[in-house]
Specification:
TIM Barrel; about 15% strand; 11 helices
């Protein structure tokens, strides 16, 4: 494994593990339910391979994903960077809105620490910006948790450039997590620059385009009933066929290197800057091991030019979320 440094000196493996798919009967399902024993073995295998960065969140499941990760790292905690997120209000297990208040951050930290079985969260994100609360108040409350030793680093997810600047002027922001991949490049316009201007590392989620870029899907009907991606506009109708053109070019480049589409997608992201640490999601050792090999893939200038040509900024067919989802990002 290779390693990179996010903001404020936080060293992590160059690729992390997105734990979100590791749920059973939960609220966000990609394909079939995870085999939780296999998911645990996937975490253990990643640790054996030198992966140190594991990403979860309060809402995944909800709650059960943190519990699974906590059980998996029991006795293996040393040297790991555990990231989780807060920012939603619940009634039982139902999400009923966003809540970035310091009181909610404090309550969320206590719950996450218990579920994860740890005494300090390494990287604590606001999962979605709460437009009703000034970001200065949000990160101020998160910074208080740092002072108390419950959190080592604080971070934001899906924040817009002005929010990033205001937050960084108030407290030390270590990372921004947002969607970034060959088929979602809008962060390159202003958001990456705002991060770099403020010494903030960048953590791309969905770096494989929610699995589309792997080439595993040939039509919308390949998605099983109940799969969350059936609501994704980029998987629907004419958008699906149009976006397959990206996959075809990736496959040609992958064949030249003797590697998978997933490795090409991740190698492209890693080539965008040393401050970028993607977190592809897994629930099986096979796919995790394949993706982690991307740290050893070097794309040529010709490869990068071909990928940039087939997948330019704004070139993907369809928005990345439906209307409700788009209202919650880049605020």
């Amino acid at each position: 494994m290779k390693y990179r440094t996010l903001g404020h000196g936080l060293k992590v493996s160059a690729l992390g593990v997105g734990c979100m798919p590791m749920i059973k009967g939960g609220n966000i399902t990609y394909g079939a339910d995870a085999d939780l024993d296999e998911a645990t073995r996937t975490i253990h295998r990643a640790i054996d391979m030198g992966v140190t960065f594991f990403d979860t969140a309060q809402i995944y499941g909800p709650f059960q994903n943190e519990e699974l990760l906590g059980e998996a790292i029991n006795g293996k905690r040393e040297g790991l960077v555990i990231a989780t997120k807060f920012g939603f209000r619940f009634e039982g297990k139902k999400i009923v809105g966003v809540d970035g208040s310091p009181a909610n951050a404090r309550a969320a930290v206590e719950g996450s620490l218990q579920r994860l079985g740890i005494d300090c969260i390494d990287l604590f994100y606001q999962h979605r910006v709460d437009p009703s609360i000034p970001i200065e108040d949000v990160v101020g409350g998160m910074a208080d948790l740092m002072k108390e030793g419950k959190v080592k680093h604080i971070a934001l997810s899906e924040a817009g450039p002005e929010t990033i600047r205001k937050a960084a002027a108030t407290a030390p922001i270590t990372a921004l997590q947002s969607e970034y991949s060959l088929w979602e490049r809008d962060v390159e316009d202003e958001i990456l620059g705002a991060c770099r201007d403020n010494g903030i590392g960048f953590v791309p989620y969905s770096p494989l385009g929610r699995g589309f870029l792997t080439g595993d899907f040939k039509s919308f009907d390949d998605l099983p009933e109940g799969d969350w991606r059936r609501n994704d506009p980029r998987f629907q109708g004419e958008n699906f066929a149009a976006n397959l053109k990206i996959v075809e070019v990736m496959a040609d480049i992958g064949a030249k290197h003797g590697v998978s589409n997933a490795q090409i997608a991740l190698a492209w992201l890693l080539a965008q800057g040393d401050d970028i640490v993607p977190i592809p999601g897994f629930k099986r050792r096979l796919t995790m091991e394949d993706s982690m090999a991307a740290v050893d893939v070097t794309l040529s200038a010709e490869d990068l030019e071909a990928l940039n040509a087939i997948a330019p900024r704004g070139g993907t067919a369809g928005p990345r979320y439906g209307e409700a989802g788009l209202k919650m990002v880049r605020l």
